[in-house]
Predict the 3D structure of the following.
Amino acid sequence: MSKVKVSRKAHFNAAHRLFRKDWSDEKNTSIFGKCSNPNYHGHNYELIVSVSGKIDPETGFVMDMKILKDLIKIEVEETLDHKNLNIEVEEFKSLNPTAENIAVFIFNKLRPHIALDKELEITLYETPRNFVMYSG
Ligand code: NI
């Protein structure tokens, strides 16, 4: 049976600040650059959620894309879209909301809802040129 990867694109806007409380302003600026702005700033995040697995012989689907679309809406967009990640998302009150950490967060939100015989892969663009991938 053929193994196929299906993907759904999504989008959210969010504000963040990258910094460590235990570092000086100088060190935060030198490591995190503009992303350490104390007044926060936004990114237009582009998300690609991919699910790999065998094609169901009955439906011809790897996964029903309508179900995947709704899952992304409920688990990701409603949690992150138009939020200040550092302030409004519990996970990022104590964890830097880097693209890496956000990708892992999204994976962990979606993984319990995807069948165990399917592989899940998260691709997250923080800018059109910077993106990260996580698959567990
Ligand atoms: Ni940033």
